[in-house]
Design brief:
Distance between the termini: 38 Å
Strand content: under 5%
Number of domains: 1
Shape: globular
Largest sheet: none
Order of helices and strands: HHHHHHHHHH
Oligomer: single chain
Length: 208
């Protein structure tokens, strides 16, 4: 498999890390480790997560298991990887900002819309140089389309997925996190704000 530069960064890994931190509010981080392959009992972990975080865990699984996420991981060029390049640093900073925004929003009544931080993460999540190299020169990564036209189409399709379907899944996942935390009595929210927080998340962050 190619050992080059990814056209898109690993949004799913960012989401995984954030969700683990959320689950740790209930001491359930290891349950996520188990279902992610740590070697612990998957059945027991699934039972715990489906009991305590049923709604958000469902959306989390949809994100992690989506075929387009797998496609993102295999869309990369064959150029030598440059460690800590500008794109990686920008994505790292945007990831930290998104994580902080999600945690604050999930655990407090008054917080900024985390979808704005998500938009910044998405904007930092593609490497244009890697994309042009992938499109023009191809890749040894399995499943890479054989023509420049098809490789460019894949990049366009994945970009549309990230800004469209993935963004909607993330929004629903965030709403579900807050609902699960409330139902599990892990976080207590002001009931007067119950309508406000549901409308807080911007459903059209990429609209013009």
């Amino acid at each position: 498999m190619a050992k080059g530069n990814h056209v898109f960064n690993s949004f799913d890994k960012v989401i995984h890390a954030i969700y683990r931190a959320i689950l740790e509010l209930d001491g359930r981080g290891r349950a996520l480790d188990a279902v992610s392959g740590s070697g612990a009992s998957v059945t027991e972990a699934e039972t715990v997560l489906n009991s305590r975080f049923k709604t958000s865990y469902g959306f989390f699984k949809q994100i992690q298991r989506h075929e387009k996420i797998a496609e993102i991981h295999t869309t990369q060029d064959d150029r030598p990887v440059i460690a800590n390049d500008g794109n990686s640093k920008d994505f790292g900073n945007a990831s930290a900002n998104f994580a902080a925004a999600v945690m604050k929003w999930a655990t407090t009544d008054a917080a900024d819309d985390p979808m704005e931080s998500w938009r910044q993460l998405v904007n930092a999540g593609s490497d244009l140089a890697a994309q042009e190299s992938y499109v023009k020169q191809g890749s040894s990564s399995p499943g890479t389309p054989g023509s420049e036209t098809l490789r460019r189409k894949r990049c366009v399709d994945l970009s549309e997925f990230v800004k469209g379907e993935l963004t909607k899944l993330v929004r629903n996942w965030l709403l579900a996190i807050r609902l699960d935390l409330k139902n599990a009595k892990i976080v207590s929210y002001d009931l007067r704000d119950s309508a406000a927080w549901k409308g807080l998340l911007n459903a059209n962050v990429f609209s013009q």
